[in-house]
């Protein structure tokens, strides 16, 4: 049965899947800073790492478990006793802890990667989940490559995981292959066919290889999933994971058509985005949705004029809702007189007469043809020059 509860759990995996991006590894101190930012953002679950992966990863999970209060702290573990024990050990100090254990379920992964028969995989699902329950009541099980798994087998694995005690069932789109309609249909199929599905939260975890990670996650929520796994700035292997900030702002901005809530404080997004970019070394592209430098910037004269008359003409979100002070009017060759006058006022030239403004605007247009962006200092200089010349 599809849940009637519209609260969506946000599971952040910046420190685990995000950190798996080549070149994005973070020090313990950096991870702690990110974990604090995630707690301020009020994410529900922080996947702090993969405790068995290295001593450094163990320490990070352990320190985050000690220091971070509020969110549930989670460690990843393969379906082996050693992995699960290490995860359990690292999580001991956590206020609330979750073990996230996974195994591949697609024909391709079982045959070539695991080299294991499906029946053995099924046994391992039950064994790993039951073993993880010895360390915590909060156990998540993931079907790696779930979106490319045969439906009958996926149903059997999900049922077995729930019977063994899994409280969250995650169906990753590990290689970013699915589409919104197909992924939603997998959720619906699970709700219709797995008899004990009501005993667990259905979760989604999407990679962005086709640029569909956010769309797929939202489609799955509309089909009844109630946990989304995502990362700040969409950090993650290959093309990355679903971007937390895009999911949150889509749910907030289009609540009319997607009536789901999260417990997050969106005003903390910019802070988290800048921190993750700084510590991972992954620069955010300027036109990235929500957190890119141009996401709240207007350059064309028509847009600037409309925006100055009423911000909602060209803005669907308020910059303050993500923690920015204000939108910016970028002065360039497409800018018009209205925005230029506003810029002059902002720079302290409120008393200029019409002729002086026209003169400055002409000089500005000449300069703008030669430069990609005209900075505030350039405008101050050209107004000063004009005042001197007259
Ligand atoms: O993408 C994936 O399948 C994963 C799992 C380990 C959850 O990251
Ligand atoms: Zn992943």
Automatic annotation (TrEMBL):
It catalyses: 3-methyl-2-oxobutanoate + acetyl-CoA + H2O = (2S)-2-isopropylmalate + CoA + H(+). Keywords: Acyltransferase, Amino-acid biosynthesis, Branched-chain amino acid biosynthesis, Cytoplasm, Leucine biosynthesis, Manganese, Metal-binding, Transferase. Its cofactor is Mn(2+). Coiled coil: none annotated. Mn(2+) binds at residues 17, 205, 207, 241. Its EC number is 2.3.3.13. The keyword Kinase does not apply. The keyword Nucleus does not apply. GO terms for molecular function: 2-isopropylmalate synthase activity; acetyl-CoA C-acetyltransferase activity; manganese ion binding. Residues 8-270 form the Pyruvate carboxyltransferase domain. Pathway: Amino-acid biosynthesis; L-leucine biosynthesis; L-leucine from 3-methyl-2-oxobutanoate: step 1/4. GO terms for cellular component: cytosol. GO terms for biological process: L-leucine biosynthetic process. Belongs to the alpha-IPM synthase/homocitrate synthase family. LeuA type 1 subfamily. Catalyzes the condensation of the acetyl group of acetyl-CoA with 3-methyl-2-oxobutanoate (2-ketoisovalerate) to form 3-carboxy-3-hydroxy-4-methylpentanoate (2-isopropylmalate). Homodimer. This is 2-isopropylmalate synthase. The chain holds residues 1 to 390 of 516 of the full protein.
């Amino acid at each position: 049965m599809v849940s009637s509860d519209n609260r969506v759990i946000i599971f952040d995996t910046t420190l685990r899947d995000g950190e798996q991006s080549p070149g994005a590894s973070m020090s313990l101190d950096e991870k702690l800073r990110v974990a604090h930012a995630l707690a301020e953002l009020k994410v529900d679950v922080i996947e702090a790492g993969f405790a068995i992966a290295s001593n450094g990863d163990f320490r990070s999970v352990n320190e985050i478990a000690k220091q971070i209060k509020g969110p549930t702290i989670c460690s990843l573990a393969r379906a082996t006793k050693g992995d699960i024990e290490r995860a359990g050990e690292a999580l001991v100090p956590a206020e609330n802890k979750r073990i996230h254990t996974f195994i591949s379920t697609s024909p391709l992964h079982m045959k070539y990667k695991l080299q294991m028969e499906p029946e053995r995989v099924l046994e391992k699902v039950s064994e790993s989940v039951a073993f993880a329950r010895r360390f915590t009541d909060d156990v998540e099980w993931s079907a790696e490559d779930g979106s490319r798994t045969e439906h009958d087998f996926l149903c059997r694995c999900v049922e077995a995981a729930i019977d063994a005690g899994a409280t969250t069932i995650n169906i990753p789109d590990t290689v970013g292959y699915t589409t919104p309609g197909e992924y939603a249909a997998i959720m619906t199929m699970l709700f219709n066919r797995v008899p004990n599905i009501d005993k667990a939260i259905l979760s989604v975890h999407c990679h962005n290889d086709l640029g569909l990670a956010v769309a797929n996650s939202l489609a799955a929520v509309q089909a009844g999933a109630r946990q989304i796994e995502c990362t700040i700035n969409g950090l993650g292997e290959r093309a990355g994971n679903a971007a937390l900030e895009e999911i949150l702002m889509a749910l907030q901005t289009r609540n009319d058509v997607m009536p789901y809530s999260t417990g997050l404080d969106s005003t903390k997004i910019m802070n988290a985005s800048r921190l993750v970019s700084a510590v991972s070394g992954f620069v955010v592209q300027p036109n990235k949705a929500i957190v890119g430098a141009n996401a709240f910037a207007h350059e064309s004269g028509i847009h600037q004029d409309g925006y100055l008359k009423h911000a909602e003409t060209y803005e669907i979100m308020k910059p303050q809702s993500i923690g920015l002070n204000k939108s910016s009017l970028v002065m360039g060759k497409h800018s018009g007189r209205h925005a230029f006058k506003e810029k002059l006022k902002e720079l302290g030239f409120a008393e200029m007469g019409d002729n002086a403004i026209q003169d400055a605007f002409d000089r500005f247009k000449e300069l703008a043809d030669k430069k990609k962006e005209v900075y505030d200092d350039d405008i101050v200089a050209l107004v000063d020059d004009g005042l001197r010349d007259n």
